[in-house]
Amino acid sequence: MSRKRPLAAGQVARTASARVLLRGGVDEKTGEALTARVVAGRVGWAADLVAGMVAGLLAGRWNAGDVARLAAGVDEAGRVLPSNAWMALRRLGWDVRVPEGFKVNDRIVRMAQEQAGRTLRSAQHRAEVTGGVLKTWPTDPDKRTPAEWDAVREAIPDGGSLPGSVIKARTRQITAFLDRHGRFPVDVFDLEEPPRVARMLVLAAVDRQQATLERADDDPARVLLRLQLPTRPDPRSYADWSWVACPLTLPPTVPPGAVLHLPTLRPHGQRARADLAFSHPVPRTERNGHARALGVDWGLNTLLSAGACRLYPDGRITALGAGAMFRAAGVMARQHRLRRHGERLHAKTDGYERLIGGQEDHHLAAKHTVLTAERQYVADRRSGLNDALAWSAARWAVDQAIAAGATVIYVEDLRSMEAKGMGRTLNTRLSQTVRGRIIGNMRHLAAEVGIAVVTVPARNTSKHCPQCLVPLRHCKAPDRRTTPGWKWAYCPHPDCGWQGDRDHGAWRRIAARGLTHQNNTTVDRATGQMTIGRIIDKVETGAVITPTPAPPASGGDRSKTGPTPRRTPRPAPRRRRAPSTPGPCGPAGQRPEGHAHTDHRPPRAACRYQGVRTPVHTISSNTPTTRDRPPHRPKGAALGAGFHQHAHATPPRWADPPVTNTQYDYGSLS
Description:
2 domains; alpha+beta; 18% strand
């Protein structure tokens, strides 16, 4: 099949990946039907064979000279190296060693060279960062001065856009090496051992003699993957390799007209997974020229706060609506409970390891095995919870941008955020929030609809007033006097008077800052990520939100111009003509009279109500629901309004022209 598709005006090709499970196959040599377990085993034999060859190549080339030679991009004759890693390694004469007695074809060697070449190319960046830190070693490694920060960023190529957390992590790693060996490392290759090799088969490096991929004619969601796999762990001849046909079912995220590429196979337990890459046209995203933008602010329990702003030709910026919040208090609480449980399991397993001391017949060895498996189970649950939360939050943010008609999403850049000085518990919660994965998923989803995602500096976004840039004063929320923290903010300037949730003020500042600095947006050539690197003070003075006037009072002139008309007095208020039903036997109480609503379902989530008595696949508490013991639900959450019972996304309230008074946002805390 063709790997290219013609593009229309205003379109670009986008490559994404979808995970597919290999559920079985057919051995074309014998006609035998293979189960998913057998296919996974044969994929694992091939992956182990490739991983062994990759490990040998990395061990021989893990040095500064070879990595710099590969990163230079030219060979000894001055010719430019190919972009494919396996072709570049062959141009340099770097071959892999096949285990003695094994028989493999040239395509298996290609996959090993491709995987090793990608790993060696990625090591160049780590070498540059480590070299820059060693050249500008600070006087106090725990706290650099501003001059030392400038020096280390100048010593690292493109260090101006490098997150500070990366430099701090390298500094801690070098400090640990110094304490252990009593000397500084020469470079990153002295600091680190060769990286571990992943068990996978990179089929993108082979041709039709090793693997093919074809769509079914009758169903575009069905794909047939054919590849050569060994029939034994140690193939001794070409007869020990056979073609296996594996039918695949594409997920709905893959467009019917997308161009498919050969996948990467990863054995995982008793199953094999395929990371299937595909390309399809999407609208082009622009770095500037935006008139409507969505500002997104981060929080702890209120994970995301977002709202739209509009830039007018005269430079005015107004907020469109009161904004919305993505609250995931229940999910974060479950995440922290699993984290504490995992920490206790780690402490127990470490204690057992010290007591066992390497003795296989120790009486605590069985308990150590059980706790190790439980620790891995808790880690998998935490990983799945973070993945579900990251996709749900990203989908919510992109939906808000689509509903507001925004062409760009501005997110504050918190890559360098290091939580400290707020207590051990709060520091840990802030540090382990899944922000990076949310931004990555947000870029993935926004690219499908042509919406750009730009990161902006987070300096003073929650500190200054969005309407006059005066430092805000924080206090307790008016309707939550007993809630700890200083969630509410108000402007002390007498001519402004803005007040509201501090997160709502932050997304206004982020959106206004992005709209005014959009001409300074830079695009990374390698990844295509857009960012605003620095704040220009002269431009920042115009990043203010113009307050919108309150809507006029409804109705006409109410001034009295004549006598009050006489109205017939009613002897009694209107009542029910039928008596109330008798009260039921039990703690339910009596049915109220009048027109009181007796349906206990939330009115906003009535169309997608999840019955609490039926089992649902959620990660919330499974507390039984009775009349005496209602189900647990966080404050402000509506059952069934989020991606599970504890994640609640407030509905957008966009309006154009805006009719909401932005000086009073009491509704955001209800």
